[in-house]
Amino acid sequence: MNNTAQRRRGGRTFFVRFGVVALFVAAVVSYLADSSPDGLETVTRQGCETVRTSNGEQLTGDCIARGGTEHAFAESPLADYTVLGNSSLTGLAGILGVLVTLLLAGGLFALLRKPSGPTSGSSTTAPNGDPPDTGR
Amino acid sequence: MHTTPLALHMTDGLLNAPTALLFGAIALAGIGFSLVKARATLDDRTAPMAGLVAAFVFAAQMINFPVLPGVSGHLLGGALVAILVGPWVGTLCVSIVLVVQSLLFADGGLTMLGANITNMALLGTAASYLVAVALRPLARRNRSGLLVTAFLAGTINTVMASVGFLLEYWIGGAAGFSVAQAVLPMLGIHLLIGIGEGIITALTVGAVAAGRPDLIRLLRATPSSGRPTARGDTESASGTVEGRS
């Protein structure tokens, strides 16, 4: 099965490319994002008017979003995809988000994955993979 | 100068406390069930892929695209994950993205996390997976079939997530605002966003298919007949390890 070996090497290249694309989207393309409110926000604000006060924006009138309150972590360093409130650093916030997501998701999935093949030291699987006790 | 930049998900206070709790419980149950089911599909090859898919969904969600004057939308990712890594792992991918967004980027209220997960990670992913499975024969036929499948699944995903919001608000909206007036604009706008989601989903699935079609879960064996294949993979993988050492 030389094919598998090739595929594995190709797999690494593909994974690296995929990661680079994700980083590029978060770091660079994010600056092109439309800053208009999204569909959910638009609809939930229907019927209200946005009034700018010294404390920021306030909604007056009758709409779904009026019940909305500020996020508990609104003052956190990366809030709203900025770095310390600086929205010109959105790309940096995006890079951090991609890396944290990759770390959490990759870590979780690595923990969850089936032990495949005779990984040295682990004796949980027979050499030719007998999965009955893991299979549910 | 705060002009609500990039707020993507439901903010705190939109639903009353019992409803928020109810959907928190539904989200937890969905995640727990997915954790159990995901194990069967994760191996040395699919685990890194799934991690990258989650990272990509995070990145893609940052990109709001215009759908109407003054209205934007962004990818939710449910269809993309369902097609690439399957519904169970996919649900976990989107859930992780939503948790990171809420905890780290103050996007999506903490008390609304359950509702946001229910809409985007559970409902959206489930609906688009069903569409994708129904169209699987088409997706397997050729490249255009796969792209059409990805597009339709992506569109359904966005619309379904907005249906989830309407349902939640109908059950327990905090402001005494009738949900009826929101139904048509909500569905209409999310159909438009869904077209964008469909296009991005098709482009991404198309790119993966061009490089590594074997990594697209939807195109592989059906889950019921998947076990023998998985065992076969295990054997060939062990062969590789031996060959290399």
TrEMBL record, chain A:
Source organism per UniProt: Actinopolyspora alba
Keywords in alphabetical order: Cell membrane, Membrane, Transmembrane, Transmembrane helix
Transmembrane segments: 14-33, 91-112
GO CC terms, sorted: plasma membrane
InterPro entries attached to this UniProt entry: PDGLE_dom
Region (Disordered): 116-136
Highest taxon, organism lineage: Bacteria
Coiled coil: none
The protein's name in its UniProt record: Cobalt/nickel transport protein
Low complexity bias: start-end ranges: 116-128
Domain spans labelled PDGLE: 12-114
Subcellular localization: Cell membrane
UniProtKB/TrEMBL annotation, chain B:
GO cellular component term, pick one: plasma membrane
Residue stretches spanning the membrane: 14-36, 48-68, 75-100, 120-139, 146-167, 187-210
Region named Disordered: 223-245
Domain of life: Bacteria
Membrane topology: Multi-pass membrane protein
PANTHER family: METAL TRANSPORT PROTEIN HI_1621-RELATED
Protein name in the entry: Cobalt/nickel transport system permease protein
Species in which this protein is naturally found: Actinopolyspora alba
